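Lab notebook, design round three. We kept the backbone fixed and only want residue identities now. Task for the bench partner: fill in a sequence for the structure below.
Input structure tokens:
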């Protein structure tokens, strides 16, 4: 017998098997006792049943759900592989493009400045340098190239060196090859166009520096004060190891990266010897060949000169200084000096002739950080100097001057650089590459100071 309650008055009802209807003894309402009614109202305690879905319905929905999840994971994984392989995407100029969806890319600005190179042969310098990729908790160091026009990533190598060993690495560009020496004494040649390794040799010692040794050859100086000459095509040794103190080539190779005049300093003019080690971005007609000279500090009235910048192509000298009295705001000046004094080992050089001087910024001197500039670059007749305001919330700025007259050409902020130190500058005749710690590379138009893109992130 099934039991239920009257839907009108709530009185208890008893329904016998096969009974089609039941009449409430209290309110007199007659209630149909058909199957669907009994399922809703008349199941006695202990016999309650859960509603059942149509046969196969739950399994079908579960299967559809699992297939959808599988398709989503496959799509995300495919996109990650696609982007990680170097594909460009979107129209944003932020060049974290090309990293996977679960990757974070940073420009390793603490390692070395950008090396301008002709990667895609479009006559615009493309920056090549070290980047750090972070996938979850794993960090790896790679070499990567980016398009100098769009910022798209052109290629990226497999992991090359542990982050804590990057200080021992040496990287230069020699024509259409990048030469990379790691902390284990391996020297590898990579194609500028693709980043693929074309040859490698085991040197048995860490490398001190790499520089040109004539057409199609390179000299490698080792930490043990030995050197050897290799040909660039296959990396074959063409000259036995010799002492760096007794041998040198009279030819100077056209390297981009760290470059050294190959002749022994005593056989060179003082100015050439001063350019013994320089950062170079020489590619085709684009040139940026300068060196900061820490021991050439001319006596210029009212200035405390910290360093000098030598333009190795045009023999122009610029003083990186600060006012010696009152507010010690940053100042740049152009001067001339004799070869004899330029080659002097003393920290101060007299008889310097000042041609012009300019405060780095036109802002109130008391709003600037009170120290002389430590880095600068000169290319295409323009001197670029970074400076910082005495406000941690303010972006670091760049000032550009005409090298001949000292006229200020532009003054711009480095976007998103608040609190970040400018680690390196390198310029070609069209582009300015600024490495900011930590950890991004900013690309500007040298002529106008227009910010073009950011590679990596702050």
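Proposed sequence:
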């Amino acid at each position: 017998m099934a039991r239920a309650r009257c839907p009108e008055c709530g009185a208890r009802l008893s329904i016998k098997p096969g009974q089609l209807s039941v009449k409430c003894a209290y309110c007199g309402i007659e209630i149909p006792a058909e199957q669907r009614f009994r399922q809703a109202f008349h199941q006695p305690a202990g016999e309650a049943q859960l509603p059942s879905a149509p046969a196969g319905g739950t399994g079908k929905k579960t299967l559809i759900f699992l297939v959808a999840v599988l398709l989503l994971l496959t799509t995300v994984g495919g996109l990650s592989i696609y982007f990680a392989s170097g594909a460009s995407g979107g129209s944003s100029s932020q060049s974290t493009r090309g990293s996977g969806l679960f990757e974070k890319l940073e420009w390793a600005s603490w390692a070395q400045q950008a090396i301008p190179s002709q990667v895609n042969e479009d006559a615009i310098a493309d920056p090549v340098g070290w980047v750090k990729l972070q996938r979850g908790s794993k960090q790896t160091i790679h070499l990567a190239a980016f398009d100098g026009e769009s910022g798209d990533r052109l290629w990226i190598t497999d992991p090359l060196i542990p982050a804590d060993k990057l200080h021992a690495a040496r990287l230069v560009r020699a024509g259409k090859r990048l030469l990379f020496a790691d902390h284990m004494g391996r020297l590898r040649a990579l194609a500028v166009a693709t980043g693929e390794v074309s040859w490698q040799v085991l040197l048995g010692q860490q490398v001190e520096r790499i520089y040109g040794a004539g057409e199609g050859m390179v000299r490698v100086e080792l930490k043990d004060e030995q050197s050897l000459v290799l040909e660039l095509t296959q990396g074959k040794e063409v000259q036995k190891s010799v002492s760096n103190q007794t041998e040198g080539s009279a030819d100077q190779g056209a390297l981009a990266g760290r470059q050294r005049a190959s002749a022994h300093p005593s056989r060179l003019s003082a100015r050439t010897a001063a350019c013994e080690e320089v950062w170079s971005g020489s590619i085709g007609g684009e040139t940026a060949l300068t060196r900061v000279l820490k021991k050439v500090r001319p006596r210029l009235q009212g200035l405390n000169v910290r360093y000098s910048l030598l333009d190795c192509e045009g023999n122009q000298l610029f003083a990186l200084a600060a006012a010696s009295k009152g507010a010690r705001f940053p100042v740049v000046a152009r001067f001339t000096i004799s070869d004899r004094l330029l080659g002097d080992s003393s920290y101060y050089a007299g008889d310097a002739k000042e041609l012009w001087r300019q405060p780095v910024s036109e802002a109130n001197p008391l709003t600037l950080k009170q120290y002389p500039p430590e880095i600068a670059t000169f290319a295409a007749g323009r001197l670029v100097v970074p400076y910082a305001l005495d406000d941690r919330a303010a972006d670091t700025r760049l000032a550009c001057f005409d090298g001949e007259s000292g006229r200020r050409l532009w003054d711009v902020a480095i976007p998103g650089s608040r609190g970040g130190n400018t680690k390196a500058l390198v310029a070609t005749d069209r582009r300015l590459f600024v490495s900011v710690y930590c950890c991004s590379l900013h690309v500007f138009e040298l002529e106008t100071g227009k910010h073009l893109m950011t590679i990596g992130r702050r």
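Keep this in mind before ordering anything: Residues 57-84 form the longest helix (28 residues).
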